[in-house]
Every structure is written in C-alpha cells, then in structure tokens.
Amino acid sequence: MSIQEMDRSTRRISKKPQVAIMNAVHDLPVLAARDLGYFKDEGLDIDFIVTPGMSQVTTKHFVKFETVFDRPLDSVYNEGGIDTYRMCEWGIMKRAVEAEASNIRKRKIVALGAAMSMFAIAVRRDSRFYAPEMLKDQLIAVTPNNGSHFTTLKMMEGFLEPKHLKVTNVGTMPQRLQALKDGKVQAVSLMEPWISVAQKEGLRILIESHSTRAEAASDELDGETLKKMFRAQARGAEALEKDPTPFIKYFVAETGGRISESDFQAWRLLNGPPTEYTRERFDDEYNWTVKWNMTVPGATYENTVDNRAWGQTPIQA
C-alpha cells in the first residue's frame, strides 16, 4: 500500500463518506440508490449532505461569473463537509483544474455520469425567435460556469459565431423565467424540472440537448469505496431507466408546486452507469473549455483525473 493510500485509509476511519445532494436532475441516480437501499447493499453507511442549487425554488444565493469556489456546495466541500459531488462535466472540470492551481482543497474527476440531464433554451411564446440562430446578439440567461452555461455554448456554437453569442446571469431557474416574462432577457437556459414548468406556462422551446455529468471526489475516498458507490449508482440509474415515476416527487418539490407529477416530462431523463474518465475525453472537453476561456490552461490528465475506482490512478509528473 502506498503512503497516499495509507493516508486515505487512516482518514476514512474517522468519518462516514459525505455525499452531496443538490439538484435532483444531477443526483437522481444517487437519490434512487439511497431510497432503494443500494448503498446499504454495498455495505456503505453514508451521510447525505443537502446543499442549495439553481433548480430549487428556495435557493436565495446569487452566483457570480468571476468565481465558483464561494458557492454553497463548493464552500461546504472546501471546509471538508463533503467528500464527493456531481454536477455538469465542465463545471467539475473547472473546479478540479482551478483547485489544483490554487490553495483550495483538492478534488479529482473520478467518473463520468451517471445523470445525463437535458438542457433547453426557451423563449416567450410571443417572441419573434423561432430558431437558435435568431438569437444572434440576444441575451440568454444562464448560471455562470455551470451546466446551463456550458451546454448553451455547446448547443449554440453551431449556429452563431462566438462574438454573437451573448449570455448573462439573472439568478436561479425560477428567477430567470421571471426575467424572461418581464422582457429583461430574450431567452433562458433551463434544466428539469424547469423545462416542464416553461412548457406548462406556455413558453417556446427552441433547442435542447442532453449533457453529461461528472463526479469529483477528495483523496479521503479510497478506490474501493468509490467502486461500491458507483455500483449502487449504476443500479439506481437502471431502476430509473425502467421507471422514474417514484422519484418525480423530487422534481415537483424543487418547483414549489408550480407543476404536478403529471406535468413533468419524464421522457427527458437519461441516466447510465458511472464510467471511468478517459484521457481522450479529458483532452476533448478540457481543450473545449479552455477555448471558451472557461478555465485556465496548463492542466494535465494526470493532475486532474483519478480513476482509482477502476484501479487506475495516473502517476503525477
């Protein structure tokens, strides 16, 4: 056993794994695995830590473009209150890269998946915008440096040159829907359950796409523990693909009652087993993120990714 592995084992004795729960669309396989007892089947005793997210109607904080590490989930992680969390792949990439480059608690990308949630760009029903390219030089509301931001760029870059693709920040998903209705922005980027809310309330969907999640973890979680977590999540994802109905309640709760379970468009959900994060995937997605000036250059696969759940830990240069 290496010194690093001994250190992980020693620290793991002191507390149970602490797993973040934020937006349901990112964490649904975790919620399903928890509710169905799959973590316990793996012999895991986990503390689930709930943090505010941009999809929750109760969220009050306002995020900034300039920094990500002062946000609620990140702040809890930085103080050691969380060992692992999931969010959009590029948001995890940014945090892993920039934590490594600064004096902040380190985290590594430890898996791709398991939620592959849908994002959509919506406009008012009475707007003059009928296709993505018609949003040239128009403000699209996103969450800075999170999934709605990255996926909006991914969806729109085939239609508009970067200089004509304009994004802004007006707050949470419910806040940006209100800004759209008030005419403060011309389009909004949403994920579920707010796409379903938008459709119920008569807004027009211009374009939508699935996007990938990734998982980050601290060194406190050893490879065997992560492997068990991912097996439980894989079973959760399989259960969701068969029937997500028992878990739609989590989405309805996030809206504060603006939709019922029958309004929720469950066909948009897509979940799969966590998989290792490959070098090819890192090269493609990291270079794309740097191209858009969404993270700092100079990172490597070795100092950003750790596939220890699959018995593969890159050797640091």
Compile the SSE list and pairings.
Blueprint: H1 3-13, E1 18-21, H2 24-35, H3 38-41, E2 47-50, H4 72-78, E3 84-88, H5 89-100, E4 108-115, E5 118-123, E6 139-141, H6 147-156, E7 166-168, H7 173-181, E8 187-191, H8 194-200, E9 204-210, E10 213-217, H9 223-242, H10 248-254, E11 271-275, H11 279-291, H12 301-304
Parallel strand pairs: 1-2, 6-7, 6-8
Antiparallel strand pairs: 3-10, 4-10, 4-11, 5-8, 5-9
Examine the coordinates and then state which fold CATH places here, giving the name of the CATH topology of the largest domain: D-Maltodextrin-Binding Protein, domain 2
Note the overall shape. globular
Q: Biggest β-sheet, characterized?
A: 5 strands, mixed
Uncertain runs with pLDDT below 50, 5 residues or more?
A: 1-14
Q: Which CATH architecture of the largest domain is right?
A: 3-Layer(aba) Sandwich
Average pLDDT level = 89
Ends apart, CA distance between termini: 20 Å
Tally of separate domains? 2
Proportion of beta-strand residues: 15-25%
Given this structure, which CATH class of the largest domain is correct? Alpha Beta
Q: What's the arrangement of strands in the largest beta sheet?
A: 7-6-8-5-9
Listing every helix as H and every strand as E from the N terminus to the C terminus, the arrangement reads HEHHEHEHEEEHEHEHEEHHEHH
Tally of DSSP β-strands: 11
Structural class: alpha/beta
Helix count? 12
CATH superfamily of the largest domain, called what?
A: Periplasmic binding protein-like II
Describe the structure.
The chain is an alpha/beta fold and 317 residues long. It has two domains: 3-116 and 212-310, Periplasmic binding protein-like II (D-Maltodextrin-Binding Protein, domain 2), CATH 3.40.190; 118-210, 3-Layer(aba) Sandwich (D-Maltodextrin-Binding Protein, domain 2), CATH 3.40.190.10. The protein contains twelve helices and eleven strands. It has helices spanning 3-13, 24-35, 38-41, 72-78, 89-100, 147-156, 173-181, 194-200, 223-242, 248-254, 279-291, 301-304; strands at 18-21, 47-50, 84-88, 108-115, 118-123, 139-141, 166-168, 187-191, 204-210, 213-217, 271-275. It has a five-stranded mixed β-sheet, with helices on both faces. Strand 6 (139-141), helix 6 (147-156) and strand 7 form a beta-alpha-beta unit. Helix 2 crosses helix 9 (223-242). The protein is globular, with a radius of gyration of 19 Å.
